[in-house]
Amino acid sequence: MSELPPCPQCGSTLTYEDSGLLVCPECAHEWTPGTAAEEAASGVVDANGNALSDGDTVTVIKDLKIKGSSQVVKVGTKVKNIRLTGGDHDIDCRIDGVGAMKLKSQFVKKS
């Protein structure tokens, strides 16, 4: 069995091939195998599809509850000097008034 790449949109490993396209059963995203490699090479992207890199400044686009706390990271909070990591929470950062935390790139936009 050949190893198919994970979905570039949601990261699911349950992808399958259908008529020359790769399909994700979880989010219904379809793509051609060549574009999957290009999307993976581009790295982490924000909610608008802009590529992020280490040292960028991003803005939070949704109120984010902090797990295990009553604090909330408000919409419009600027986060400077981000660091990209692998995994589900792909941004490592320090937020003023909150401290160090990890964010998902889908909840930020590049400033």
Automatic annotation (TrEMBL):
<feature type="domain" description="Protein YjdM N-terminal">
    <location>
        <begin position="3"/>
        <end position="32"/>
    </location>
</feature>
<dbReference type="Pfam" id="PF08274">
    <property type="entry name" value="Zn_Ribbon_YjdM"/>
</dbReference>
<dbReference type="InterPro" id="IPR013987">
    <property type="entry name" value="YjdM_N"/>
</dbReference>
<comment type="similarity">
    <text>Belongs to the YjdM family.</text>
</comment>
<protein>
    <submittedName>
        <fullName>Alkylphosphonate utilization protein</fullName>
    </submittedName>
</protein>
<dbReference type="Pfam" id="PF03831">
    <property type="entry name" value="YjdM"/>
</dbReference>
<dbReference type="InterPro" id="IPR013988">
    <property type="entry name" value="YjdM_C"/>
</dbReference>
<dbReference type="InterPro" id="IPR004624">
    <property type="entry name" value="YjdM"/>
</dbReference>
<feature type="domain" description="Protein YjdM C-terminal">
    <location>
        <begin position="44"/>
        <end position="110"/>
    </location>
</feature>
